[in-house]
Design a protein that fits this description.
Carbamate kinase; 8-stranded mixed beta sheet; 39% helix; proline biosynthesis; nucleotide-binding; cytoplasm; Glu_5kinase
Length: 256
């Protein structure tokens, strides 16, 4: 029997507080859930943002004037810091993790894609949790992922995942602003259902991640059409990933 595979994407807005500092207990809760899923027979893959914020915490102001160069510097400094966090946390749960940095080119049909598949399949066969992120240090602007939601969707397709869980800082997709009393959470969305009018504009600063709810909605619909159920849920809610995969009515489910 093929093991169940799940791709979990965690955004910068989930792992940081209002001061844009990375919150250790949130990362610990994320890894705890991944360890639980692994024990329950899942092969989890984590797509993690956070390298730019982690780099900004170390460097503070950066001398580079060019936005792309600044992103490369922050991400290059922050990426090993993020992996140190994850390595330590997974080690505490008796698990192993590995880093996979990718550019969009790696998903183009051909040798690069085959190589990526071999890498993921090899790691999963060994019971190692792959941690994916965009290779910001070498990504060219014209061939960058729109954000890590897109990367997560491509990884889910690549490994033929049984589910994609996109974690954000709201409980799912709402019919208005999540804080408005009149707004209602949509529990289920069909890929052909028109819900784009409900999405609020995103206002993000440097290092805070590129994706907003508009991107998540687009990616969730695209992924569901590939027969991969996709969930948008609140990553700051305790046990949210495990509960969703156990059938609890949390977040917004996009189904094929």
């Amino acid at each position: 029997m093929k093991e169940k595979r799940v791709v979990i994407k965690v955004g910068t807005n989930v792992m940081t507080n209002k001061d844009n500092r990375i919150v250790g207990p949130i990362l610990n809760e994320l890894v705890r859930q991944i360890a639980t899923l692994y024990e329950d027979g899942y092969s989890p893959v984590l797509v993690s943002s956070g390298s730019a914020i982690a780099g900004m915490e170390v460097l503070g102001e950066c001398l580079a004037k060019d936005d792309a160069t600044r992103r490369q510097i922050y991400s290059s400094v922050g990426q090993p810091r993020m992996m140190r966090h994850y390595y330590s946390l997974f080690h505490d749960y008796g698990m192993r993790c590995a880093q996979i940095l990718a550019t969009k080119r790696d998903f183009t049909p051909g040798k690069h894609r085959e190589n990526m598949i071999n890498c993921y399949e090899g790691l999963l066969a060994e019971g190692i949790v792959p941690i994916a992120n965009e290779d910001d240090a070498v990504s060219l602007t014209m061939s960058m992922f729109s954000d890590n939601d897109e990367l997560a969707s491509l990884v889910a397709e690549l490994i033929e995942a049984d589910a994609l869980v996109i974690l954000t800082d709201t409980d799912g997709l709402y019919t208005g602003h999540p804080d408005d009393e009149d707004s209602q959470k949509l529990s289920k969305v069909h890929p052909d259902q028109a819900v784009e009018q409900y999405v609020q504009a995103s206002s993000k600063g440097e290092g805070e991640g590129r994706g907003g709810m508009k991107s998540k909605l687009k990616i969730a619909k695209q992924t569901a059409k590939k027969n991969i159920p996709t969930y948008i849920a609140n990553g700051k809610r305790k046990n949210v990933i495990v509960d969703i995969l156990n059938g609890h009515d949390l977040g917004t489910k996009f189904y094929a």
